[in-house]
Design brief:
The complex is a heterodimer.
Chain A lengths: L1 H35 L2 E2 L10 E2 L3 H8 L1 H32 L6 H13 L2 H12 L5 H8 L12 H26 L3 H9 L4 H29 L3 H6 L11 H10 L4 H43 L1
Chain B lengths: L3 E10 L2 E11 L4 E5 L6 H9 L6 E6 L2 E2 L10 E4 L11 H11 L4 H15 L14 H14 L4 E5 L7 H17 L3 E6 L2 H7 L2 E6 L2 E6 L1 H6 L4 H6 L6 E10 L2 E5 L4 E3 L2 H5 L7 E6 L4 E3 L8 E11 L3 E8 L2 E8 L9 E6 L4 E5 L7
Parallel strand pairs in B: 3-8, 3-9, 6-7, 7-8
Antiparallel strand pairs in B: 1-2, 1-4, 4-5, 9-10, 11-12, 11-14, 12-13, 14-20, 15-19, 16-17, 16-19, 17-18
Helix pairs in contact in B: 2-3, 2-4, 3-4
Classes of the chains: A mainly alpha, B alpha+beta.
C-alpha cells in the first residue's frame, strides 16, 4: 500500500523542483504585482505601508490619455510588424522553396538577424538612422535625394522597419518548413489540373499552410506586445510619446514617476491582453485537434 | 483518344541515366500497362509523359505533336496518383471540380459534371466530406472522379491501387475494368503488380533496369516471354528455372539437368535459336501435372517438401536435385510430404532460355 502511494507520487516529486522555482520566480512576483496594483504605492514605502485604493489605479489609467496613446502605439506597432513580417516572410518562403545552388547558405544568412541581441540591433539601427552620418541618409544624399528624419518625424515607422528586419526570418523559416512538408503529390495534381504557379499558391499552398501561419502570427503578436530593448535603445519612446510602447511606459512610471501601483496596474492590462492572445492561440490548436479527432471518429464509425 | 509515341526517351539524374532510350507507341483508346519491379523506370516514364519530370533526351509525341516542352496543364491529360493526392482543405465536390473551376466554366455546368462523375464512382453521398473523413477506397474514388471530371483525352494512373488493402484492391480493379469499358480514352497505367497488369491491359509493357523488356498482349507475354526476366515476372506463382544442357540423342533433343532429362518437343526444337548448349529450362508451376505413369523423358521427379493449401489449388514446394521447383495443382490430388513423385510436363509449357544472355531460345 505504502509503495503504491510512493509510486503514485513519483512523477510529482520529479516535477517539484521546477514547480518550486516557478512558484518563487513567477507566481510570487505576479501575485505581488496584482496585489500592488490595488494600492497607492511609492518606492520609498514597503508594500505594507502603502494605502489600499481598490480599482483606482485601473480607472485612472483607463482615462489617462498618455496611457491610451501608449496602448495605441503598442497596438499599431504590433499589428503593423506582424502584418509586414507575414507578408515578407511568407513571400520569401514561397520564392525560396526550391533547389537552387547555395540555398542552404542563403537560408542561414536570412535567419542571422534573429540571432542578434536586441540591444545590438537597436544600436545598429540607431546608427544607420542617424540624420547626418547614418547609412541611409548618406546613401540617399549620394544619389541626390534629401535625407529622411528617420527617428524624428518617422520614428514609429523606423522602429517598425527595424523590428521587421529582425523578425521576418522567424516567419520565413516556419513558413518554409510548412511549405516543405506540404504533400508534393497534391501540388503535382494541381499542376495537372491546370493551376498556374499563382493559382497553386492561392488555392493550394496558402490554405494548407494556414494552421502554421495562424500559430506563427499569434506567437509573433505576443512577442511584439512585449518588445522593449530595441525601441529603448533607438528612441527611448520619443520623440514625444510617438514610440512609447506600453512596456516602456511601465518602466518609466515605476522609475521616473515613482508610482509603483499604477505601473503594476498597467502591467496587468498588458498581461490581460497577452492572456487573451494566448488563449486564442490555445483555442485555435484545440479546434484543430477536435476537428482531426472528429474526422477520425467518423471514419471509424463507417468501417 | 490520342495516339502517344515515345521516341528514344532518356532520363538522367545528374550523371546517372535511369531510362535508356524508351521507344513506345500507344494506339488510340488503348489501355497500356507499364509493369516492372520498383526502380525499373516505369513511374519515371509516366511522370515524363505527364510533364512532372523533365525529359533529358528524346521526345514525346501526342497525336504527332512534340510535347516535352509543354507544361502538364497543356498536355490534356488527367492523372491518378498512388497516394491519391487530394486537396485536403477542399471537400469532395470541390476536389472534383478544381480543374473545371480553374477553367472558369459556368457554375451549373460544373455542378452537373460533378454530379455525373460522382455517380459513376459512387460518391454522391459524400460530396460535402473533406478527404480526411473518407476511407482509403473512397479517397481513391475521389481521385478517379477528379480525373474523370476533367474530360481529358489521356488518363495516367501511377500505381493507383497499391495503397489499398487486398480485398479493396480486387474490388477497385474490377471497377476500373468496368469504367475502362465505359470511358473511351487512352489510358496508361503503372503498376508493380502483375495481376493488375494481366487483368486490365490491352497491352503490357514490361520494364526492367530502365529498358523495355517486352511488350504485347497479356497472352503473348505469358505464353512466349522474350527473356527470363519477363518469364519470371509474369505469372503467380512464378516460373521455375532449372539449369540444363542441350543434348542430342537418337535424333531427338533433350534438356538434361542434374536430376532430369526432358525431351524438347519437335516443333520447339526446330525453331531453336543459336546456343552454346548451356540453357535454362523454364516451366510454369501450372504446367506440371501429377502423373505417376508418365515416361521419364516428359516428366520431372520431384521430392515434395511443403504443401501450401490455398483452397481449390495447392502449391507444392519441391526439390529436383538441388533446385527448387513449385507445382500448382488441384487440392484433391493425394500427395504425401517427403515422397518423390513424378510430374508430367505439358509439352507447350517448356520454355528455353540461353543461360548467359537470358533471352528466350
Amino acid at each position: 500500500m505504502a509503495t503504491k502511494g510512493i509510486n503514485r507520487l513519483t512523477p510529482y516529486m520529479f516535477m517539484a523542483p521546477a514547480a518550486i522555482i516557478m512558484g518563487i520566480a513567477l507566481l510570487y512576483p505576479l501575485g505581488y504585482m496584482v496585489y500592488g496594483s490595488f494600492r497607492d504605492w511609492n518606492p520609498s514605502q514597503t508594500i505594507g505601508e502603502s494605502e489600499f485604493v481598490g480599482l483606482k489605479n485601473y480607472i485612472t489609467l483607463f482615462y489617462d490619455p498618455a496611457f491610451r496613446e501608449s496602448l495605441s502605439v503598442t497596438l499599431t506597432f504590433a499589428f503593423a510588424v506582424v502584418f509586414a513580417e507575414l507578408l515578407l516572410g511568407v513571400g520569401l518562403a514561397l520564392l525560396l522553396d526550391r533547389n537552387i545552388r547555395g540555398m542552404s547558405i542563403l537560408r542561414t544568412l536570412f535567419i542571422l538577424p534573429m540571432m542578434i541581441a536586441p540591444v545590438v540591433v537597436g544600436l545598429m539601427w540607431r546608427y544607420m538612422y542617424h540624420p547626418t552620418v547614418g547609412t541611409f541618409n548618406r546613401f540617399l544624399e549620394s544619389i541626390g535625394l534629401e535625407g529622411v528624419d528617420w527617428l524624428g518625424q518617422h520614428a514609429l515607422m523606423s522602429v517598425i522597419i527595424a523590428d521587421v528586419w529582425q523578425w521576418t526570418p522567424f516567419i520565413f523559416i516556419l513558413s518554409l518548413a510548412a511549405l516543405q512538408s506540404l504533400p508534393r503529390s497534391a501540388l503535382e495534381a494541381a499542376r495537372i489540373d491546370g493551376a498556374t504557379p499563382w493559382q497553386q499558391i492561392i488555392h493550394i499552398k496558402l490554405p494548407l499552410m494556414m494552421p502554421v501561419l495562424i500559430v506563427t502570427a499569434l506567437l509573433r503578436l505576443i512577442d511584439a506586445f512585449k518588445v522593449l530593448e530595441v525601441i529603448l535603445v533607438m528612441t527611448e519612446g520619443g520623440p514625444g510619446l510617438s514610440t512609447e510602447i506600453v512596456a516602456l511606459r511601465i518602466s518609466r512610471t515605476a522609475t521616473e514617476f515613482r508610482e509603483l501601483g499604477t505601473a503594476a496596474a498597467m502591467s496587468n492590462y498588458l498581461l490581460i491582453l497577452l492572456l487573451l492572445l494566448t488563449l486564442s492561440m490555445f483555442a485555435v490548436t484545440k479546434l484543430q485537434e477536435a476537428r482531426a479527432a472528429r474526422l477520425a471518429r467518423q471514419i471509424q464509425e463507417e468501417d | 483518344m490520342p495516339e502517344i509515341r515515345l521516341e528514344k526517351l532518356i532520363k538522367r539524374y545528374g550523371a546517372v541515366e535511369v531510362l535508356h532510350g524508351i521507344d513506345l507507341h500507344m494506339a488510340e483508346n488503348e489501355f497500356t500497362v507499364l509493369v516492372g519491379p520498383s526502380g525499373c523506370g516505369k513511374s519515371t516514364t509516366l511522370r515524363m509523359i505527364a510533364g512532372l519530370e523533365e525529359v533529358s533526351d528524346g521526345e514525346i509525341y501526342i497525336d504527332g505533336q512534340p510535347v516535352s516542352h509543354l507544361e502538364p496543364k497543356d498536355r490534356n491529360l488527367a492523372m491518378v496518383f498512388q497516394d491519391y493526392a487530394l486537396y485536403p482543405h477542399m471537400d469532395v465536390a470541390r476536389n472534383i471540380s478544381f480543374a473545371l473551376r480553374l477553367q472558369k466554366r459556368p457554375k451549373d455546368e460544373i455542378e452537373t459534371k460533378v454530379k455525373e462523375v460522382a455517380d459513376i464512382v459512387g460518391l454522391t453521398d459524400f460530396l460535402t466530406r473533406k478527404p480526411g473523413a473518407l476511407s482509403g477506397g473512397q479517397r481513391q474514388r475521389v481521385a478517379m472522379a477528379r480525373a474523370l471530371a476533367k474530360d481529358s483525352q489521356t488518363f495516367l494512373f501511377d500505381e493507383p491501387l497499391s495503397n489499398l488493402d487486398a480485398k479493396l484492391r480486387g474490388q477497385m480493379r474490377a471497377e476500373l475494368a468496368i469504367m475502362r469499358q465505359r470511358v473511351q480514352k487512352n489510358m496508361i497505367y503503372v503498376t508493380h503488380d502483375q495481376i493488375e497488369a494481366m487483368t486490365l491491359a490491352d497491352r503490357i509493357v514490361v520494364m526492367h533496369g530502365g529498358y523495355i523488356q517486352q511488350q504485347g498482349t497479356p497472352e503473348e507475354l505469358f505464353k512466349s516471354p522474350a527473356n527470363k526476366f519477363v518469364a519470371g515476372f509474369l505469372g503467380s506463382p512464378p516460373m521455375n528455372f532449372l539449369d540444363a544442357e542441350l543434348l542430342e540423342e537418337g535424333g531427338e533433343l533433350f534438356a538434361k539437368g542434374s536430376a532430369f532429362q526432358v525431351r524438347i518437343p519437335e516443333v520447339k526444337a526446330k525453331q531453336l535459336g543459336r546456343t552454346d548448349g548451356k540453357i535454362t529450362l523454364g516451366i510454369r508451376p501450372s504446367d506440371l501435372n501429377y502423373d505417376a505413369n508418365a515416361a521419364s523423358q516428359v516428366a520431372l521427379d520431384l521430392q515434395v517438401k511443403v504443401s501450401e493449401y490455398v483452397g481449390a489449388q495447392s502449391v507444392l514446394l519441391c526439390t529436383c536435385g538441388d533446385a527448387d521447383v513449385t507445382v500448382e495443382l488441384k487440392s484433391e490430388t493425394p500427395i504425401a510430404l517427403g515422397e518423390t513423385l513424378r510430374f508430367a510436363v505439358r509439352p507447350e509449357g517448356i520454355h528455353l532460355f540461353d543461360r548467359k544472355s537470358e533471352n528466350a531460345l
